[in-house]
Amino acid sequence: MKYEITHFDRKVFNDITELWNLAGIGKPTRGDTFEIVQSTISHGAKISGIYVNEKLIATCWITNDWRRLFLHHMAVHPEYQNRGLGARLIEDALDYGKEMELQMKLDVHQDNTVAIHLYTKYGFQPLAGYFQMFRRGFQSWKSK
Fold it and tell me: Cα angle at 96 between 127 and 55, to 5 degrees?
Protein backbone atom coordinates (compact mmCIF):
# COMPACT_ATOMS: atom_id res chain seq x y z
CA MET A 1 0.00 0.00 0.00
CA LYS A 2 2.90 2.41 0.71
CA TYR A 3 5.62 3.06 -1.80
CA GLU A 4 7.99 5.59 -3.26
CA ILE A 5 6.47 7.43 -6.17
CA THR A 6 9.04 6.64 -8.85
CA HIS A 7 7.13 7.93 -11.86
CA PHE A 8 6.52 11.65 -11.39
CA ASP A 9 4.51 13.50 -14.01
CA ARG A 10 1.89 16.25 -14.11
CA LYS A 11 -0.94 13.82 -13.27
CA VAL A 12 0.89 12.64 -10.12
CA PHE A 13 1.69 16.27 -9.24
CA ASN A 14 -1.99 17.21 -9.67
CA ASP A 15 -3.00 14.31 -7.38
CA ILE A 16 -0.46 15.47 -4.80
CA THR A 17 -1.52 19.13 -4.92
CA GLU A 18 -5.18 18.14 -4.72
CA LEU A 19 -4.37 16.19 -1.56
CA TRP A 20 -2.33 19.10 -0.15
CA ASN A 21 -5.33 21.37 -0.73
CA LEU A 22 -7.77 18.93 0.91
CA ALA A 23 -5.46 18.67 3.91
CA GLY A 24 -5.19 22.46 4.16
CA ILE A 25 -1.48 22.72 3.35
CA GLY A 26 -1.66 23.75 -0.32
CA LYS A 27 -0.56 27.36 -0.44
CA PRO A 28 0.58 28.97 -3.72
CA THR A 29 2.94 31.31 -1.81
CA ARG A 30 5.12 28.28 -1.03
CA GLY A 31 6.05 28.10 -4.70
CA ASP A 32 5.82 24.33 -4.95
CA THR A 33 5.32 24.07 -8.68
CA PHE A 34 5.59 20.96 -10.82
CA GLU A 35 9.02 22.15 -12.01
CA ILE A 36 10.30 22.73 -8.44
CA VAL A 37 9.16 19.31 -7.20
CA GLN A 38 10.52 17.63 -10.32
CA SER A 39 13.86 19.38 -9.84
CA THR A 40 14.11 18.22 -6.23
CA ILE A 41 13.43 14.64 -7.33
CA SER A 42 16.26 14.83 -9.85
CA HIS A 43 18.48 15.99 -6.96
CA GLY A 44 17.73 13.17 -4.52
CA ALA A 45 14.25 13.96 -3.20
CA LYS A 46 11.75 11.22 -2.51
CA ILE A 47 7.97 11.28 -2.56
CA SER A 48 6.12 8.56 -0.69
CA GLY A 49 2.48 7.87 -1.30
CA ILE A 50 -0.29 5.68 -0.01
CA TYR A 51 -3.00 4.79 -2.48
CA VAL A 52 -6.39 3.12 -2.06
CA ASN A 53 -7.95 1.95 -5.32
CA GLU A 54 -5.53 4.15 -7.30
CA LYS A 55 -6.55 7.23 -5.28
CA LEU A 56 -3.73 9.03 -3.47
CA ILE A 57 -4.78 9.31 0.18
CA ALA A 58 -1.48 10.19 1.89
CA THR A 59 1.87 11.58 0.85
CA CYS A 60 5.06 13.16 2.08
CA TRP A 61 7.89 14.81 0.22
CA ILE A 62 11.46 14.46 1.48
CA THR A 63 14.18 16.66 0.04
CA ASN A 64 17.87 16.21 0.49
CA ASP A 65 20.63 18.79 0.69
CA TRP A 66 23.24 16.03 1.33
CA ARG A 67 23.65 17.34 4.86
CA ARG A 68 20.18 16.56 6.16
CA LEU A 69 16.76 15.53 4.95
CA PHE A 70 13.76 17.84 5.08
CA LEU A 71 10.26 16.44 5.49
CA HIS A 72 7.83 18.62 3.55
CA HIS A 73 4.09 18.66 3.16
CA MET A 74 3.06 15.45 4.84
CA ALA A 75 -0.65 15.13 4.16
CA VAL A 76 -3.38 12.59 4.78
CA HIS A 77 -6.76 12.88 3.08
CA PRO A 78 -9.32 14.10 5.69
CA GLU A 79 -11.48 10.98 5.21
CA TYR A 80 -8.50 8.75 6.09
CA GLN A 81 -7.04 10.64 9.04
CA ASN A 82 -6.60 9.00 12.46
CA ARG A 83 -5.93 5.58 10.91
CA GLY A 84 -2.17 5.45 11.40
CA LEU A 85 -1.28 6.59 7.87
CA GLY A 86 0.75 9.55 9.11
CA ALA A 87 2.72 7.15 11.31
CA ARG A 88 3.41 4.94 8.29
CA LEU A 89 4.72 7.92 6.34
CA ILE A 90 6.93 9.05 9.24
CA GLU A 91 8.31 5.54 9.69
CA ASP A 92 9.08 5.34 5.97
CA ALA A 93 10.78 8.74 6.12
CA LEU A 94 12.86 7.75 9.15
CA ASP A 95 13.85 4.47 7.48
CA TYR A 96 15.00 6.51 4.48
CA GLY A 97 16.97 8.82 6.78
CA LYS A 98 18.67 5.84 8.40
CA GLU A 99 19.49 4.39 4.99
CA MET A 100 20.95 7.73 3.87
CA GLU A 101 22.63 8.27 7.27
CA LEU A 102 21.21 11.80 7.42
CA GLN A 103 19.29 13.55 10.15
CA MET A 104 15.85 14.90 9.38
CA LYS A 105 14.31 18.32 9.88
CA LEU A 106 10.74 19.50 9.49
CA ASP A 107 8.60 22.54 10.09
CA VAL A 108 5.20 22.40 11.69
CA HIS A 109 2.82 25.22 12.54
CA GLN A 110 2.52 25.78 16.28
CA ASP A 111 -1.27 25.37 16.09
CA ASN A 112 -1.04 21.93 14.46
CA THR A 113 -1.11 20.02 17.74
CA VAL A 114 -2.03 16.70 16.11
CA ALA A 115 1.06 16.79 13.89
CA ILE A 116 3.26 18.00 16.76
CA HIS A 117 2.08 15.05 18.85
CA LEU A 118 2.88 12.62 16.02
CA TYR A 119 6.31 14.11 15.33
CA THR A 120 7.19 14.18 19.04
CA LYS A 121 6.21 10.51 19.34
CA TYR A 122 8.88 9.75 16.71
CA GLY A 123 11.62 11.73 18.45
CA PHE A 124 11.38 15.14 16.78
CA GLN A 125 12.01 17.99 19.21
CA PRO A 126 11.94 21.78 18.92
CA LEU A 127 15.34 23.30 18.25
CA ALA A 128 15.76 25.45 21.34
CA GLY A 129 17.01 28.97 20.82
CA TYR A 130 16.13 29.16 17.13
CA PHE A 131 13.30 30.65 15.19
CA GLN A 132 12.86 30.13 11.52
CA MET A 133 13.27 32.89 8.95
CA PHE A 134 12.77 32.79 5.20
CA ARG A 135 12.15 35.05 2.27
CA ARG A 136 9.40 34.24 -0.21
CA GLY A 137 9.55 35.35 -3.81
CA PHE A 138 12.31 36.43 -6.08
CA GLN A 139 12.08 40.21 -5.99
CA SER A 140 15.32 42.14 -5.94
CA TRP A 141 17.06 42.51 -2.61
CA LYS A 142 18.23 45.99 -3.57
CA SER A 143 16.30 48.84 -2.01
CA LYS A 144 14.21 50.88 -4.41
Answer: 105
* In 5-45, beta strands by DSSP E: none
pLDDT of residue 5: 79
Q: Is 101 exposed, middle or buried (0-12, 13-18, 19+ CB in 10 A)?
A: exposed
What residues of the chain score a pLDDT lower than 70? 1-4, 137-139, 141, 143-144
Residue 104 makes CB contacts below 8 A (sequence gap 6+) with: 62, 68, 69, 70, 71, 93, 94, 97, 124
Amino acid, single-letter form, for residue 21: N
Domains of the chain by range and CATH?
2-121 (3.40.630.30)
